[in-house]
Fold this sequence. Notes:
Layout: H1 6-9, H2 13-34, H3 36-44, H4 66-71, E1 87-90, E2 100-103, H5 105-122, E3 129-132, H6 140-152, E4 155-157, H7 164-174, E5 178-181, H8 183-195, E6 207-211, H9 217-227, E7 230-237, E8 242-248, E9 255-257, E10 262-267, E11 281-287, E12 298-304, E13 306-307, E14 319-320, E15 325-326, E16 331-333, E17 336-338, H10 340-348, E18 353-364, E19 367-376, H11 385-403, E20 408-412, E21 427-429
Parallel strand pairs: 3-4, 3-5, 5-6, 6-7, 18-21, 19-20
Antiparallel strand pairs: 1-2, 7-8, 8-9, 9-14, 10-11, 11-12, 12-15, 13-14, 16-17, 18-19
Helix pairs in contact: 2-3, 5-6, 7-8, 8-9, 10-11
Amino acid sequence: xxxxxxxxxxxxxxxxxxxxxxxxxxxxxxxxxxxxxxxxxxxxxxxxxxxxxxxxxxxxxxxxxxxxxxxxxxxxxxxxxxxxxxxxxxxxxxxxxxxxxxxxxxxxxxxxxxxxxxxxxxxxxxxxxxxxxxxxxxxxxxxxxxxxxxxxxxxxxxxxxxxxxxxxxxxxxxxxxxxxxxxxxxxxxxxxxxxxxxxxxxxxxxxxxxxxxxxxxxxxxxxxxxxxxxxxxxxxxxxxxxxxxxxxxxxxxxxxxxxxxxxxxxxxxxxxxxxxxxxxxxxxxxxxxxxxxxxxxxxxxxxxxxxxxxxxxxxxxxxxxxxxxxxxxxxxxxxxxxxxxxxxxxxxxxxxxxxxxxxxxxxxxxxxxxxxxxxxxxxxxxxxxxxxxxxxxxxxxxxxxxxxxxxxxxxxxxxxxxxxxxxxxxxxxxxxx
Length: 433
Ligand code: DLL
């Protein structure tokens, strides 16, 4: 099985740690000199980059959260002037302000390299026809995979997401061998193909590179059976880079983290202390080479464990297991990250509804559906069907504007949504992954 960059990907661990330490020192100096926010944070605990002696010393540094990054909206956490930023992406669906991230030309070069690694690990090669059905835009999925696959020399078909029948037509006519999208969209495409009476034998698919949302081994098997390909998982996040942070090799037993570019820690989300090796906890990343948007100890909120044992593929980078949950209430619907607080923020701005709501996520025909049950205000309850429908449409429009995706709104009578003394149960996730 081929390895894109054997020099780094199979490097002995002690050598890797030397490189990590050297790059960590560089990064700390870089942010200390260039980003006010980091300098103030370091100063507040009396930390100077020169204090760092070992990789473990990173634990003396403060964490960075999504909230912190949002506060920097749009560019104040950039470590280079805008004229050196050649690309901007942004995280989807956050309350109010999104996290905006920038890339220098060097960052884009690294990004393509890291995606080339995970694509090679998944089994993609020059000569493959790669249909990218991730959205192109501020979301990192489309462009991120695009340049990495081009780097390999594969043939890239940048279809972007949506228009499923057209996707199948292209897949068939172009003989796509690699499908790149979210796992739920892959399953949906399988179903559309069946409706169009296109069988997996009519298609030429070989490899699937799926990511950006949680999925199970059961789902993997179903996608493989229905599309006739080998499905691989890959992980990443906007704040750290986008796709290319980690990806599965053909062993398909955990995703290798590109550790020469990202320092990974796993912490107990309550005590914030490191967990024992191999235990489940929250992933925390520090970038080691990023120029425009470095992050120090970024708390991902993603829960998983690292697999300390060496992998049969020969790569020495640590593997992470599939993400098994989050420590916050973020849900991912059709690839868009949504927080219940965004729904609340939209509802409080609408006269006539109460901020009592429940979000129901379901999966029909393998596509996520979002429904928001909203309580009406007593004074607005009316017997006029026409008024109700119009009102419902208004609420839907407002929510779509805030969330970035469409949700079906169901208006319910005052005081019908269950009240609890403790945490409100805002989300009912009926998806069986
Ligand atoms: O989803 C980047 C990406 C694009 C990764 C394409 C892979 C492929 P965000 O939109 O910022 O970035 O969302 C990041 O999505 O913190 C996880 O909760 C979740 N996530 C990403 N990949 C996986 C995965 C992109 N393979 C958030 N399994 C992360 C489970 C994933 N969850």
